[in-house]
Amino acid sequence: MDTYSLLRQIADSWVLLAMTVFFLGVIVWAFRPGSRSTHADTAQIPFRNDDAPTSGEPK
């Protein structure tokens, strides 16, 4: 068996399985029950240094 065929066979089976397991692990990690506060805090990063809202007049 030449090198290309061997690598192709490995990529078609084990690497695909490893990538699927990694993807599912990332999804489970992102939606785990205790991560809501972390995601909420991260979502507010762009607004942390904003001043209080003005009366709607441009500066």
What's the structural blueprint in terms of helices and strands?
Layout: H1 3-30, H2 36-43
Description:
By secondary structure, the protein is mostly helical. It has a domain at 1-31. The chain contains two helices and no strands. The radius of gyration is 23 Å and the shape is elongated. The relative contact order is 0.06. This is Cbb3-type cytochrome c oxidase subunit 3. InterPro entries: Cbb3-typ_cyt_oxidase_comp.
Q: How would you summarize what this structure contains?
A:
The chain has 59 residues and is mainly α. It has helices spanning 3-30, 36-43.
State the separation between the terminal residues, measured CA to CA: 72 Å
Number of strands: 0
Mean pLDDT: 85
What spatial form do the alpha-carbon principal axes imply? elongated
Spans of at least 5 consecutive residues whose pLDDT stays below 50 are: none
Strand fraction equals under 5%
Structural class: mainly alpha
Q: From the alpha-carbon coordinates, what is the Rg to the nearest angstrom?
A: 23 Å
Order of helices and strands: HH
Specify the biggest β-sheet: none
Number of helical stretches of at least 4 residues: 2
Proportion in helices? 55-70%
Region (Disordered): 35-59
Protein name: Cbb3-type cytochrome c oxidase subunit 3
InterPro entries: Cbb3-typ_cyt_oxidase_comp
Keywords: Membrane, Transmembrane, Transmembrane helix
List keywords for this structure.
mainly alpha, 61% helix, single chain, 2 helices, 59 residues, elongated
